[in-house]
């Protein structure tokens, strides 16, 4: 192997950082515009909040329905926003998974929030980043948790779940420090036993009365002794496959953890909760991105191949129980909440904010590539030419 070849390889990270700087600048401008939009939405949310208060006074609702208060946490279906903090409001950010921010997601009925946690060495801090902080950095974990806390402060009858994908192997203590910084530890739920799945989960109204309304799961956490409320996902949950690129590819088979792979019946018998991934990727030469164009079909409540409604009904039939969690991209499209309401037998939601059911942009999705992904791809191509030239 020539010295020139090795030198070119070592230059790859530098070239990527340099080219990504251009993308970050463009993304920054988009974020500024999004911020202005969020400010306007905030005013709308304030008005909605007043309306919600008036509506809720007629009857106490838990997670938008009085009928759910007496239901156990593990026996209802929670709508999840896949990669909640990673936004694509106008179609310009291919790495984004949601149109609306976390606050609006919660106000519109989402009760499960997922996101990837990465370590940023330059600032010695933990950030919410999509795959890489050079690609999409949504800010610090503590700030995101603070946003969730602010919403929970204003909505005292709601139980929320957080799933933190531990991409850089944070310890329980490091994650707990972020919870402390956000001031959200006063809401955390701690399971009665550690390291064992159980079926006797409390009801929503019990969790609300006890002030333990925030449930936290973390996959690949070596030990949670420092923070018992950070539950190992693979002890309590099993998931179906998530890397689906065809509308015919959705499956109810248990995929993770490996201990119950292809054996959902065993997982359920052990007391593990079913977690249904239902989002579609588009394959592109630099990797997979959310298939925005097909989202209206993917999230639809109908019975057509690829529809969320059909997939949920199929899994409910195969598992002998409804999924505890359903995770989707662009939760507002479909709308995905329609399928969750059907599973929960909720016919008239209380205090839920209405949002547009459109995708970020008619020009986004399959065949459209944002600068956030084009720039690093071009950098890699440039290095290849250097090596081969």
Structure description:
The chain is α/β, with parallel strands linked by helices and about 400 residues long. It has one domain: TIM Barrel (Alpha-Beta Barrel). The protein has eleven helices and twelve strands. The protein has helices at about 5-55, 100-105, 140-155, 170-180, 205-210, 235, 265-270, 295-300, 310-320, 335-345, 370-389, and strands at about 80, 110-120, 125-130, 135-140, 160-165, 215-220, 230, 235-240, 275, 280-285, 285-290, 325-330. Strands 1, 2, 3, 4, 5, 6, 7, 8, 9 and 12 form a ten-stranded mixed beta sheet that branches. A two-stranded antiparallel ribbon has the order 10-11. Helix 3 crosses helix 4 (about 170-180). The chain is globular, with a radius of gyration of 21 Å.
Give the tags:
TIM Barrel, 11 helices, 15% strand, globular, alpha/beta, PLC-like phosphodiesterase, 389 residues, PLC-like_Pdiesterase_TIM-brl, ten-stranded mixed sheet, two-stranded antiparallel sheet, phosphoric diester hydrolase activity
């Amino acid at each position: 192997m020539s010295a020139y070849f090795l030198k070119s390889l070592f230059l790859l990270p530098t070239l990527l950082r340099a080219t990504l700087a251009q993308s970050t600048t463009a993304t920054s401008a988009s974020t500024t515009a999004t911020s202005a939009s969020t400010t306007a939405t905030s005013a709308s949310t304030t008005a909605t909040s007043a309306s919600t208060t008036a509506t809720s006074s007629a009857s106490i609702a838990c997670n938008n329905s009085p009928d759910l208060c007496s239901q156990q946490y593990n026996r209802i279906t929670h709508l999840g926003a896949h990669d909640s903090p990673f936004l694509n409001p106008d179609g310009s950010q291919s790495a984004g998974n949601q149109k609306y921010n976390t606050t609006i997601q919660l106000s519109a009925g989402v009760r499960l929030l997922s996101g990837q946690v990465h370590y940023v060495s330059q600032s010695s801090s933990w950030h919410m980043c999509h795959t890489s902080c050079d690609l999409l950095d949504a800010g610090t974990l503590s700030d995101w948790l603070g946003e969730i806390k602010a919403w929970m402060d204003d909505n005292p009858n709601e139980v929320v779940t957080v799933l933190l994908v531990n991409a850089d192997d944070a310890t329980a203590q490091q994650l707990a420090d972020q919870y402390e910084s956000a001031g959200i530890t006063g809401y955390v739920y701690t399971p009665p036993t550690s390291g064992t799945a159980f079926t006797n989960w409390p009801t929503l109204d019990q969790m609300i009365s006890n002030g333990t309304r925030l449930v936290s799961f973390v996959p690949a956490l070596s030990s949670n002794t420092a923070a018992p409320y950070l539950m190992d996902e693979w002890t309590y949950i099993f998931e179906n496959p998530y890397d689906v690129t065809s509308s015919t590819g959705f499956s109810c088979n248990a995929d993770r953890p490996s201990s119950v792979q292809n054996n959902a019946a065993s997982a359920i018998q052990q007391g593990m909760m079913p977690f249904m991934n239902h989002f579609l990727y588009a394959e592109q030469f630099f990797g997979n991105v959310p298939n925005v164009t097909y989202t209206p079909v993917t999230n639809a409540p109908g019975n057509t191949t690829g529809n969320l409604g059909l997939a949920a009904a199929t899994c409910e039939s195969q598992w002998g129980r409804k999924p505890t969690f359903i995770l989707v991209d662009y939760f507002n499209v479909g709308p995905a909440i329609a399928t969750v309401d059907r599973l929960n037998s909720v016919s008239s939601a209380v205090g839920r904010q209405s949002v547009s059911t459109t995708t970020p942009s008619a020009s986004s999705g399959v065949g459209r590539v944002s600068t956030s992904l084009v720039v690093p791809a071009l950098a890699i191509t440039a290095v290849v030419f250097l090596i081969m030239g």
